[in-house]
Specification:
two-stranded antiparallel ribbon, 10 helices, 294 residues
């Protein structure tokens, strides 16, 4: 199943093509407890990638907070990486533990939501809302890096919070009202535009150019993951075969490569904002006694 087809099915009845080589439904591991209650885990291989994402988010956020010297956008980058960890955790809960996303789409059409479907809807909003807001955060990081916005001003902080609220509101309304443009505009459109603008802003910073290879590698991994999960999903499934594509298929590659991409972006942030050390040279000549030899 293609990742974006799966994501779209939260809101619309957008099923994978019948000609697709990918499995029509994700693999499930089910367990029975002593009360005969069946616990099923969908997409079990996504769990390690989500744990890795949470680790990356928390570690990178903490590490950025300890960077020495002046770093005006420190809080923005801290927030961005922290949100990434939370977003992937919610995605793991949603994709692995909260049941069939197609069922949520059917329930929304019938307007009959119980507590289980409400939790599914809540985590769906958190997942996609944070995905968009992370891109918005990078957009603000870029504008603050080039001094277009002042990261310490109340206006910048207020604008960022308002942007977050608008994104979550639009996603919630889009899911509840089954708006067909929501996914393309808020997920593909906003994420692509914000990340592209962030890249442009970093190219304008001369002092950060020495760290650009890390950012470029991060972009490459993100692009490969996006390709594998969208237009290249069928090719991935054909290459892996029906068995392996259930476990390490397009959706797994998208999650894993997203983690790798964020790790490279973290390296870029660290390298670009590393404080330059003052080099003190030692001379064998006593300058006070023999100034002419200096």
């Amino acid at each position: 199943m293609q990742y974006f087809s799966n994501l779209q099915s939260y809101f619309y009845e957008s099923n994978s093509s019948s000609n697709s080589s990918c499995p029509s439904s994700p693999v499930q591991w089910c367990f029975n407890d002593i009360d005969a209650y069946k616990l099923c885990i969908r997409n079990p291989t996504l769990i390690p990638t989500c744990i890795l994402a949470l680790t990356i988010g928390l570690f990178c956020s903490k590490r950025i907070s300890k960077l020495p010297g002046t770093f005006s956008t420190r809080w923005l980058y801290q927030l961005t990486f922290f949100l990434y960890g939370i977003m992937m955790t919610s995605a793991g809960i949603l994709h692995c533990f909260l049941g069939d996303p197609q069922k949520l789409s059917d329930v929304l059409q019938d307007n009959d939501i119980n507590s289980s479907e409400f939790m599914q809807l809540l985590f769906a909003v958190i997942d996609v809302g944070l995905t968009t807001n992370i891109a918005v955060s990078f957009f603000f990081c870029g504008l603050c890096d080039i001094k277009f916005l002042n990261p310490e001003s109340k206006f910048t902080r207020f604008s960022l919070m308002i942007s977050y609220c608008i994104v979550f509101l639009l996603w919630t309304l889009g899911i509840l009202n089954q708006w067909t443009w929501t996914f393309h505009v808020l997920y593909l459109g906003v994420v692509s535009v914000c990340c592209f603008i962030y890249l442009l802003t970093q190219l304008c910073i001369k002092s950060a150019r020495r760290a650009l290879p890390s950012l470029i590698f991060g972009g490459i991994y993100g692009a490969i993951g996006l390709f594998a999960a969208s237009i290249g999903a069928d090719h991935v499934c054909k290459s892996e075969g029906p068995f392996w594509s259930q476990y390490v298929g397009p959706e797994f590659l998208w999650f894993l490569f997203s983690d790798i991409s964020m790790a490279f972006v973290f390296l870029y942030v660290i390298q670009a904002n590393r404080e330059k050390k003052t080099v003190i040279k030692r001379y064998p000549v006593d300058i006070e006694k023999n100034p002419e030899k200096f």
